[in-house]
Amino acid sequence: MKAVYDFFILEWYFSIPLVMMSLIAAAMVIWRWLLNRSADTDMDDFLPAFQQVLRKGGIKPAIAFCKEEKGLIPSRLFVAGLEAADQGAAAMRRSMANENELEILPRLHFLLAPILAVAKIATMVGLFFTVISMINTFNAIGEQASTGKAKEIGGHASKIGLALFATAMGLFTAIPLVFMHVLFKDWIAKFQVKVKIASQKLITLVTNYKKDPKLLDMPAEEEDDRESRPPRKLAR
User: Could you give the CA distance from residue 143 to residue 141 in angstroms, rounded to a whole number?
Assistant: First the structure.
């Protein structure tokens, strides 16, 4: 405990930058986690309500309904697709792809680069401070050895251990950041799969609405069977 106290109090010019980086990193991780929560949408709850609005009111009420939602899929992806619904399924697909690439993906990657940068910088800064402290310690040992004060050299052993606290502090900051960065990247990959599924589902819903609004009340299994069923041959 004394070594920790000495590092944070006596070596404050080393500890303060590392502590500041740790606090900034924690704030960015919490911010990114909150953004992920606000970006996600429970599609099992949203889609039934969306289908009812689309069936009863049409495209414009459906757009207004999606804009009121907080998640990126309803408020960004579905709105982009619905606004191009009059031009056909191909236009909807292009519009949603552009929205995903230009708006959704940049929002999902927000703060990921700074988080990884702080993780790398914290490690290097901690190592840099350790090297500086070690150089000063060995210089002091050399000066005392040259003056014949060999008995006092042993007292610098604790200072060598104290110098390693900077590296430990840098790793203490970097390791959780790298771990969270990997988790965020994995969440983005899963979210992108969700975006693709939602895009195809919206195109199917709008196509069925244009054919017959009653098709929106059809269960998903029955809808798939109807689409895969071969056309009946007309009796001659």
Answer: 5
